[in-house]
Amino acid sequence: MAHTTFEAGSAALFRPGTSDAEIEASALKAIRRRNTLVRFWQIAILVFVIGMWELSSNMQWIDPFFYSSPSGVLQRLYEWATEGTTEGSLWYNLWVTMEEALIGFFAGSITGVFVGIGLGRNRFLSDIFSVYIKAINSIPRVVLAPIFIMIMGLGLPSKVALAFIMVFFVVFANAFQGVREADRNMIANARILGASDWQVTRTVVIPSAMSWIFASLHVSFGFAIIGAIVGEFVGARFGIGQLISIAKGTFDAAGMFAAILLVMVVTLFAEFIMTLVENRLAKWRPQQHLDTQ
């Protein structure tokens, strides 16, 4: 029979004479112990993977020409940071990609939220536009990159357009579904109390859909990065995607992994910022309890 960590660590506390302060202190201690254990295993797995990669490369268990090594990847990043790349400063190329991704992310997210909530609240319009949305959504987004580049050129607009498309449908689908999943009893009670459609949407529907929307935003920045990099990979003068394309063309495995690592770090940092914003805007949401087997 499965038990949660909280239950396992606190079961002994439910006895006569135990104060609330002692129970709370024990619960906090169990939480800290679990968090420490989780962090230990996260670091241990990372060290093991990197160590095995480095060892396998040094011992020739894998071909360093194709797989490089962690030390080779870090060396390439150091060279790019100090000496620049063949396409200029590393930081300028990173900024180009981030600019494209950020503009596409914010534009796609805001539009997706508004359209998702609007169509979710208006069944008549959603029935009209649903077939068109499904048709466009069925197109693999990456195949639009050559079309956008042909229409808008190799500059910023084509990459932003692809990042926008990558983000919009993810956010739209979650916002739309979140609105549809709003508690009908709460909506009915609000209407009985005399709330207008806008008041119902603002005070009941949108808060109900926030969890859906934030869930989509957590993955959407990654999709925005994908859109920007794929666009650069197809055709661009600067950007991380262009660096990957050049590294691929010169069989520079260390360069490809270095660019991927750079994108990974930036995306994880954006995810961290998103989590902070979500926690700040959703203070009303109950805290999640420990739920490990």
UniProtKB/TrEMBL annotation:
Record's bilayer topology term: Multi-pass membrane protein
Keywords in alphabetical order: Cell membrane, Membrane, Transmembrane, Transmembrane helix, Transport
Domain ABC transmembrane type-1, residue spans: 94-274
Protein localization: Cell membrane
Domain of life: Bacteria
CDD domains per UniProt: TM_PBP2
SUPFAM superfamilies noted in UniProt: MetI-like (SSF161098)
Transmembrane segments: 37-55, 101-119, 131-154, 160-179, 212-234, 254-277
Gene Ontology cellular component terms for the protein in this record: plasma membrane
Name of the protein in question: NitT/TauT family transport system permease protein
Similarity field: Belongs to the binding-protein-dependent transport system permease family.
Coiled-coil portions: none
GO BP annotation list: transmembrane transport
Pfam families, A to Z: BPD_transp_1
Species annotation: Rhizobium leguminosarum
